[in-house]
Design a protein that fits this description.
The chain is α/β, with parallel strands linked by helices. The chain has 13 helices and eight strands. An eight-stranded mixed sheet has the order 3-2-1-4-5-6-7-8, with helices on both faces.
Length: 309
């Protein structure tokens, strides 16, 4: 710890012996990125057939081992299990007493900070929360996307932050400091902006399919339920531009009938959507109300969306 004050101290971790618990999409991608940076992933805990195949493809030099053996031999232990499984895994490893003092224990959960690692911290482990803010497909593009991804990092002290920062930079990402007490808010924001975006897009696609049903133009692709069809191509440029404008221009990106306070158009939208698919109409109403609040729309529109007229 005192070495941080030494002139010339390099907080970047030396080449580490890395063990990974769960060769899922996230664990295998980060393991491959760590190996690319020069660390050695010696072992992976993988149970399902898909995880075993993923480990064999992305980490072919790693052994498939029980979680306790992986933990016992690791200098850097990466816990890449789903959020709901993390606390149970940590408790089990702590009870088994297999994590050595000084081990860097990293989890990839967005919802949790380092508090969830307390049972291992009490045994002398160095706890880090390192969450890649991106989705993983399990395919080759995952590693390429790490170069554009931010990682939300939380640590117990400045030495821990320095280590987490170095690991993220080595994997090609951008580290972002997230205070322990704000991890839930951080995770909620990411879920709201990504998971709900998917729901909005899929609802819009369903509504477009209903609107475009029937005979098309000569030579035009028929509208069906398969992804990447006519409805998706119609929506894609508009949705992509809206997302880009929102990220680049903020509030000024708001356009459309709600932002303009066009109560008649919004009422017509609600009626059409309710006839086609009532749950989509409910989602449209809720999001339109939030849009109207942001745009400070006319009282008449707010009354419509809040059900007062």
């Amino acid at each position: 710890m005192d070495s941080a004050a030494t002139p010339g101290f390099d907080p970047a971790p030396a080449r580490l012996t890395v063990g990974i618990v769960s060769a899922g999409r996230v664990g295998s991608a980060l393991g491959a990125a760590l190996e690319r940076a020069g660390h050695v992933v010696f072992g992976v805990a993988a149970i399902s057939g898909a995880s075993i195949r993923r480990a064999a493809t992305r980490l072919p030099d790693s052994e498939i081992l029980p979680a306790e053996q992986v933990a016992a031999r690791s200098e850097l232990l990466l816990l890449a299990v789903p959020d709901a499984e993390l606390s149970g895994l940590v408790a089990g490893l702590a009870t088994a007493g297999v994590v050595r003092p000084g081990t860097i224990v990293v989890h990839t959960s967005g919802a949790n900070g380092i508090g969830v690692l307390a049972p291992l911290t009490e045994l002398g482990a160095l706890p880090l929360a390192v969450h890649p803010a991106m989705t993983f497909t399990g395919h080759d593009e995952d590693l390429a996307r790490l170069g554009n991804a931010c990682f939300g990092i939380t640590a117990a002290d400045e030495v821990g932050y320095a280590i987490a920062q170095s690991l993220v930079i080595e994997m090609g990402g951008e580290p972002v400091r997230v205070p322990e007490e704000h991890r839930a808010l951080y995770h909620a924001a990411l879920a709201h902006g990504s998971n709900h975006l998917v729901t909005v897009i899929l609802d819009a696609v369903d509504a477009l399919r209903a609107a475009l049903a029937g005979p098309g133009l000569l030579g035009q692709q028929a509208v069906d339920e398969q992804p990447n069809g006519l409805a998706e191509r119609l929506l894609a440029p508009l949705a992509s531009a809206a997302l880009d404008n929102a990220l680049r221009r903020g509030q000024s990106a708001l356009t459309g009938p709600v932002a303009r306070g066009d109560t008649g158009a919004v009422a017509a939208h609600l009626a059409a959507l309710a006839a086609a698919d009532p749950p989509i109409a409910d989602g449209y109403r809720a999001l339109s109300l939030r849009t109207a609040q942001r745009a400070r729309s006319a009282p008449a529109l707010l009354d419509l969306l809040e059900g007062r007229r």
